[in-house]
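Quick one: structure tokens for this chain, please?
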Amino acid sequence: MKTVCALISLILISLNLSAYSQEAAEKQAAPDGRKRIAVIQLEAPNDYTSTRLGTGVADMITTSLVKSGVFDVIERVHLDAVLKENKLAEQGLLDPATAVKAGKILGVDYLLGGKVSEFGVKTKRSGLGAVGQILGGRGALGGLDLKNSTARVALDMRLIEVRTGKILVADTGVGEEKESGVVFAGGQLRDIVVVGRFDTTEWSESRIGKATRKAVGDVLEKVVGFFPAEGKVLAVFGSGADRAAILSLGRFSGLKEGMEVELVREEVIRDEDGQVVWTDRKPVGCLRVVEVQNDRAKAVLIGDGYSVAKGDTFVIGKSKDRSTARKPRR
């Protein structure tokens, strides 16, 4: 009897593990093939630990990643719920050892997080000398000064592959917003930073708000740039100025109307046995996307002296200015 009970218990455990593995696998695979990513709350500087700065910046990064269309991004609400259910703290998720476990539970491929290493406004004031005294007078205000202030935000970020726990990207996103103006030398300078209300006009129009957006944009460029998506030219049609191409990727891969992508052509070198021993990738032009579907796109060739052919490779995020791109040899 004990043997039968033990056997039944083992079967039930196996079924539960199988169900969990299947559920995790379903979570891991986004329906459109994009990789899944979760943004972890950032660690805030000491002066802002009691504010929503870390969460607010993480929300800004999440929104930017969603707009990029490159990843399937896990919403913060879902992330918080799963972490709470599994009794996991966000602060420890970027540890490579913890990331593997957390990634499986969250059903993501990558975790992105870090800390706000710089956040503030620095002001430098210099007197205008006699001109300042003349314009400002010699009363209580004490003349005029020239004020130069710079809002600076730095985000130290790490991108971790949860399957291996490997740190793929460790970099800093930086944003600065400068302002110059004339102020009364006797007046009191105060830069108001609204931390925790990131949806207000006051925040978005403030120097520190603009600097934060620039830092987030810098982070996005470095993270997305690590995964330049590649596709193939499926067909070419038309002639002259109307020559166009059908691309193998579309909206789900981050392509948008107006986006420019680099076009490269592969040339292989084979040995005497016909084995490929070397592959050259040479830029042959630039395409501009003019129409986008979920998994396909239509693009036109930009500039003279370039060519496009079926089977060519295009790279998202690696487009070049056509005025400086090297033309192919004829």
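DSSP finds seven helices and eleven strands in the chain.
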